[in-house]
Amino acid sequence: MATNNLSYQFKTANIVIKLIITNAVLFLFATLGSWIFKTSPGALMDWFVLPAAFDVLITQFWGILTYSFLHFGFWHIFWNMLMLYWFGQFVLNLFTEKRFLTIYLLGAICGGVLFVLAYNFLPVLSGHSGYLIGASAAVLAIVIFIATYTPNAEVRVIFFNVKLWQIGLFVVVSDLIQLPTSGNAGGLIAHMGGALFGYMYAIQLKKGNDIGAWFEKLMDTLVNLFKPSKKKGPLKTVHKSKTYRTSTTKKKATSSKSPNQEKIDAILDKISKSGYDSLTKEEKDFLFKAGKE
Questions:
Q1: Residue 46: phi, psi to the nearest 5?
Q2: How many CA atoms lie less than 13 Å away from 123 in the CB half-sphere?
């Protein structure tokens, strides 16, 4: 019963919570797995990190995305997930979950691409080996996107109201200051890749250009590939009558709806007008149960 409840809560949670849970579960798996199998967390993640070397990357190309779901230290994942939760709510207040996921994943990919290019073409890093893990580039894409799109929105930080553009600027400048002396130059470069994508996406969206539309279509295509195909029943011949339905007939058709169907229609109308989050817990539970019948 508890398992079913957890499954239901995960399915009905928004995309921010789902991403946080996914990152946390993978972190726990790597940490606990290292104790069980008497190995390091890195040994369990080797096939999912993003390698800097081109020859290794060719055989591990999925790392351009999977790296962003891996974390080693507790504070690494803690601060990333805290920032994701905090700024993710701002994005979801204005945009759909699909657009949020587009920003997040493309931010991770852009961060990974800049990391690989830096390690292979920058003289300072060229010749060094390394790999990348962490959701920082994806999270920074979210932070900089909303800080650029609604720069004057304010949040309360301890005792002061701070504008989003000030937070975004502080995060980017602090990373740039650390870059020359940090032992994590590759990670900081990846941060800049995510931040740059978030900035460009917001600027273009303000101009009416959705540079992530192609990625949303790609996600839809991939999701549809894994959806079970619906079995089509035998074709039926329908004879159209030339008579028109009167208002009385329409009323009968409407009244023939079951109470459950009427309630479902009312809930769907509410979602279309105010979004899924406007539903009460009772309405969410009812919709979830109706979908399983």
A1: -50, -35
A2: 0
